[in-house]
Amino acid sequence: MSESVPDKVGKAEPAMSAQQRRFSTGKIQTYKEFVVGSKSWFSFAVFELYSLLLSGLPGVVGFGSRSLVLPFLLKNCSSGSVLGRGVTIRQPHCISLGKGVIVDDFAVLDVRDSEGSKDSDAVGIDIDDRVFIGRGTTIAAKGGRVALGKAVNIGSDCRIATQTSVRVGESSLIAAYCYIGPGNHLRGEDGQSLIENDMELKGGVSIGSHCWVGARATILDGVSIGDGAIVGAHSLVRENVPPNSVVAGCPAKIISKA
User: What does the CA dihedral 133, 56, 100, 173 come to, rounded to 10 degrees?
Assistant: First the structure.
């Protein structure tokens, strides 16, 4: 186990990730960087008013009010897109919504940039037309980009996260409780805590069009899933999946091909 490092007041500081070190200072400037990134203090104030007054507003009044204000907060927000009650958005200037997008209650759209949250084509969340994101689902772009194609349907309580890239093709279905895109902590030298090590990144996850990922499936970083493929429920996908094939198991194996 790694030794604790003394902090400024002499107390032992536990091992932690770089993100924890950056955002656990308790300073208002750090909180601003966490929720709106490098944007101005005026943008921060507008975002805080939105969070206080509109984010949790129920019913059709809430839907309507958020739809009117979101175009001024997000990078892009097309007509007919709505956010449910209690949806968390972080760094909204890096989030784009196409036409008719529905984000159900208590979902999370979370953008974080390790280089200071500057607006960049390399960092953000792009959600195309007619996408549905289920209740309690988290989409997290931590220094990378998540892109959801037209008419993608994501079930409740999923987590899609990346430090590089996650792309889901048109009309693909992601069932409830799926976990897509996590990297792995590298093992360091003897005595070094895993939590402090760099992540092993393998280029992200690509899911083709018209795919179906079953409930509670896990798709690891570096995996590519071809068009029309089916991933069985509870599967652990560590290797690429050919188009129009069916895989299942832990680890997932091909059980049939078109």
Answer: 10
